[in-house]
Write a structure and sequence with these properties.
single chain, alpha/beta, Aminopeptidase, Alpha-Beta Plaits, nine-stranded mixed β-sheet, four-stranded antiparallel β-sheet, 12 helices, 15 strands, 23% strand
Length: 409
């Protein structure tokens, strides 16, 4: 019998085991993360399942069915430093609870697997979705193996310490050979459901991302002797563009963020000669994302001309919008309605492992549960226990529907 309270109790147990007064400390590739995984392994003892770790460090718990076709339920136990008690681990433990219920009823019609993806957060080295992108194939180990953490340890060294050869990580792609559907429950991490007074929602897909640095070049000059109309202030370009990208986002219905600004020479007595800003733009619609990007470029050229400075754009990273499977969106919506009596469909601004699984061609869906205060990646991250229980019930209903759908494909 499904027991949602057990999931809540286990999440509290995990919080006590791997957190402190500042929040969750399950950063990937650390001893605390490994402790969390050993704890999870203890929780599945006695179940008729297989446990394995793939070449990318992902952990798979498999309940064999009458068919080799597979239904996957996924999440991640790793956290950001000083993180919340639900981000990622709710997905895994709710999946384990659904697996228990299915196993109790005998051999399922399809094989059901719960996966704990390795290093979803990218908190230590800045490269998110490590394990899932290794499976999807959108992964270049050479490009990231020499990334360093704050202590100078490379990504390759950190993974090797826990028995993962980063150069073989893409071999994990074999795990998706028989995958026919992927389900992921997650806290929303934003304010939409709470603002609407709704506990649960069906996710339409994950935003596409355009990420660049925009570099303005002006002329250093003495801050006392240079008249205002004679200045070529590089920071003027950044300042104007920062304000403009907010209007661009509103105009197109997306989101834009300037997360970092750096200036040189960076002293109080000099006009800024060089100013660099990072720009993150996101939208669920590829055409609107492209329009946002073009509008920002056009605005930067206009502001550079106004300020008498120069501007160059530097590519950092991009990913296309990932739309989830329409059949699974309908099933998710129906499962939420059956559980909560009301549902809402919304996009995901943050990226998730689900995006990588969908990129690999596996039909995918996410379900969101309300986040209090709209806050995540913070020790105050929280969700009402009644909503957590409802999310486990709704995930179970979705898994039942998805098993039948997979069996019939």
């Amino acid at each position: 019998m499904l027991n949602p309270q057990r999931t809540i109790d286990e999440l509290k147990e995990l919080r006590a085991l791997t957190g402190d007064d500042n929040g969750a400390q399950r950063v990937a590739w650390t001893d605390t993360w490994l402790k969390a995984r050993e704890w999870m392994k203890e929780k599945i003892a006695g179940l008729p399942v297989e446990y394995e770790r793939d070449p990318a460090g992902n952990v798979w718990v498999t309940l064999r069915g009458t068919s080799e076709k597979e239904l996957l339920l996924g999440g991640h136990l790793d956290s950001v430093p000083n993180g919340g008690w639900l981000d990622g681990c709710l997905n895994v433990m709710a999946g384990i609870e659904v697996l228990r219920r299915i196993a109790e009823e005998g051999t399922p019609p399809v094989t059901v697997r719960v996966v704990d993806w390795a290093d979803e957060e990218g908190a230590r080295f800045g490269r998110s979705l490590f394990g899932s992108s290794a499976c999807s194939g959108f992964f270049d180990p050479v490009a990231i193996k020499d990334y360093k953490d704050k202590d100078g340890i490379t990504y390759e060294q950190a993974t090797a310490r826990v028995g993962v050869d980063i150069m073989r990580a893409k071999e994990a792609g074999a795990q998706l050979k028989n995958a026919k559907a992927y389900l992921e429950l997650h806290i929303e991490q934003g304010p939409v459901l709470e603002s609407m007074g709704l506990p649960l929602g069906a996710v339409l897909g994950t935003f596409g991302v355009e990420r660049h640095s925009v570099n303005f070049t002006g002329q250093a000059a003495h801050s006392g002797s240079t008249p205002m109309d004679k200045r070529r202030d590089a920071l003027g370009g950044v300042s104007k563009l920062h304000l403009e990208i907010r209007e661009i986002a509103k105009r197109h219905g997306g989101v834009c963020t300037v997360g970092r600004v750096e200036t040189k020479p960076g002293i109080v007595t000099s006009v800024v000669a060089h100013a660099r800003m990072t720009l993150d733009q996101r939208h669920l619609d590829a055409d609107k994302l492209a329009a946002m990007y073009q509008d920002a470029q056009d605005a930067s050229l206009r502001f550079a001309q106004e300020e008498g400075i120069e501007v160059e754009w530097e590519y950092i990273w991009r990913i296309e919008p990932i739309l989830f499977h329409p059949d699974l969106i309908e099933m998710c919506d129906q499962s939420v309605l059956e559980t909560a009596g009301v549902s809402h469909r919304l996009p995901s601004g943050p990226l998730h492992d689900a995006a990588e699984v969908a990129r690999a061609g596996v039909p995918t869906i996410m379900m969101f549960v309300q986040s209090l205060y709209g806050i995540s990646h913070n020790k105050i991250e929280d969700t009402k226990e009644e909503h957590l229980a409802m999310s486990v019930v709704a995930l179970d209903k979705l898994a039942t529907k998805a098993m039948a759908w997979v069996a019939g494909r």
